[in-house]
């Protein structure tokens, strides 16, 4: 009987455990989580902050007997080290757990900015249920809330805070909002939209210090432009990174994340990784990337679980895909949205209607895009970029009128599929 150990009980860990059980009914499965709570989805925390769900609504599986019914053992613990020679996981409490096959599904951890006063009471990340409880206690209507960071996660948190009726100020050190997924035109349009909804936004600005103040104003921040702002609550949303520190002194190869092949296996046979901590090949850029989105985590977990159970499976790779709802404004970013050397670009801007479209080409292939308000094109953009469809004459047509994307997709994708079928 094979013993499977899974480090992490988020979506990737849970899906992998269920996949193993489906294909290996007799094997032993142990899932290690570092919080004493049922496995839950961090992506549901904003809905908890909005009041749309209770804590139980964040749980990945609603039946309290789900995991015991599948004979998936659960353990609370913090991993200190993975011993690839002895094939065991060493925990912080001094205990060790032996494994035959191991999945690393530890997800991400928030980046903690090196700001004086970051440890003051009233300063919180928004990452786990404990954070959510603290935020809900302080984010009352009219409370002065300052959020550090206006990236992808920051914009999701901002939506939840706005729903709580707080007086919200966002401080982003980048030149624009969502700087890691949007260019200047799109990022600045999202800023204008947020300001139209009553959010104060500072870009190209840093928080230089956080200070505890008098009772009427619990906190005060000092900005790089010299301003001082009062706050009842400060939320740190300055990004995340793969949670892989416990692997630093081991033999498992890591770059930004844990490097995996198309089977989601690391350089050590029988040890796999999936989800936000995994670094996999991106066919669009031709490089390995960490793509921290839940659909990728789910696909990778199923692939890893199949292979751990002895069923051959491969993952085609990942790409950079983000679809974001910012206070009701839908935006998307796909592939190499920054463009490529020697490539061509087209932009279409409708400032009054908050609509924007930017396409990036490498010869006759669409390799990246930013879009705001063009929700009808999201599926087409994803298909063209992921499949690297040769556009031929349609590239020039799109350079003249980028809204003709559906026509281009139908004409070129069908032609490409026909060619592949014939050959």
Work out the strand percent. Answer: 25-35%
- The largest beta-sheet arranges its strands as 3-2-1-7-19
Number of strands: 26
How far apart are the termini?
44 Å
What's the overall geometry?
Answer: globular
DSSP helical segment count: 10
Overall number of structural domains: 3
Low-confidence blocks of residues: none
CATH class of the largest domain: Alpha Beta
The rounded Rg comes to 23 Å
CATH topology of the largest domain: FAD/NAD(P)-binding domain
Structural class call reads: alpha/beta
What average pLDDT do the residues reach? 93
**What is the CATH homology-level superfamily of the largest domain?**
FAD/NAD(P)-binding domain
Give helix % range: 25-40%
Based on the coordinates given, report the CATH architecture of the largest domain: 3-Layer(bba) Sandwich
Account of the protein in words:
The structure is a single chain. This protein has 423 residues and is an alpha/beta fold. It has three domains: 3-110 and 241-308, FAD/NAD(P)-binding domain, CATH 3.50.50.60; 123-238, FAD/NAD(P)-binding domain, CATH 3.50.50; 328-422, Enolase-like, domain 1, CATH 3.30.390. Helices cover 26% and strands 29% of the residues. The protein is built from ten helices and 26 strands. A five-stranded parallel sheet has the order 3-2-1-7-19. The longest helix has 18 residues, at 405-422. The two termini are 44 Å apart. The mean pLDDT is 93.
């Amino acid at each position: 009987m094979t013993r499977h150990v899974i480090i992490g009980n988020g979506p990737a860990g849970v899906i992998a455990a269920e996949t193993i059980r489906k294909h290996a009914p007799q094997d032993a499965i142990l899932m290690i989580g570092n919080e004493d709570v049922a496995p839950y989805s961090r992506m549901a925390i904003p809905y908890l902050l909005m009041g749309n769900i209770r804590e139980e609504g964040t749980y990945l599986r609603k039946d309290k007997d789900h995991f015991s019914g599948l004979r998936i053992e659960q353990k609370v613990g913090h991993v200190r080290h993975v011993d690839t020679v002895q094939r065991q996981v060493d925990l912080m409490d001094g205990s060790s757990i032996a494994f035959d096959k191991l999945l690393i599904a530890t997800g991400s951890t928030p980046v903690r900015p090196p700001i004086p006063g970051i440890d003051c009471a009233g300063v919180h990340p928004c990452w786990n249920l404990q954070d959510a409880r603290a935020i809900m206690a302080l984010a009352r209507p009219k409370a002065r809330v300052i959020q550090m960071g206006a990236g992808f996660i920051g914009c999701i948190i901002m939506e939840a805070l706005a729903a709580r009726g707080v007086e919200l100020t966002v401080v982003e050190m980048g030149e624009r909002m969502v700087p890691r997924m949007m260019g200047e035109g799109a990022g600045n349009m999202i800023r204008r939209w947020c300001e139209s909804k009553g959010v104060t936004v500072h870009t190209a600005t840093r928080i230089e210090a956080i200070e505890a103040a008098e009772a009427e104003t619990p906190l005060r921040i000092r900005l790089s432009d010299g301003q001082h702002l009062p706050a009842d609550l400060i939320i740190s949303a300055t990004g995340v990174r793969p949670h892989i520190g416990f692997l630093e002194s081991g033999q498992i190869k890591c770059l930004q994340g844990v490097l995996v092949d198309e089977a989601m296996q690391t350089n050590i046979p029988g040890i796999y990784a999936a989800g936000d901590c995994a670094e996999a090949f991106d066919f669009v850029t031709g490089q390995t990337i960490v793509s921290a989105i839940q659909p990728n985590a789910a696909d990778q977990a199923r692939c890893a679980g199949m292979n751990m159970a002895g069923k051959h499976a491969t993952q085609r790779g990942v790409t950079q895909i983000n679809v974001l709802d910012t206070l009701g404004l839908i935006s998307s970013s796909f592939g190499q949205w920054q463009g490529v050397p020697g490539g061509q670009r087209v932009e279409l801007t409708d400032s009054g209607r908050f609509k924007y479209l930017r396409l990036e080409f490498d010869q006759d292939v669409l390799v990246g895009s930013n879009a705001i308000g063009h929700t009808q094109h999201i599926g087409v953009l994803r298909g063209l970029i992921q499949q690297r469809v040769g556009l031929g004459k349609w590239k020039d047509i799109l350079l003249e009128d980028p809204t003709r994307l559906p026509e281009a997709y139908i004409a070129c994708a069908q032609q490409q599929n026909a060619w592949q079928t014939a050959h």
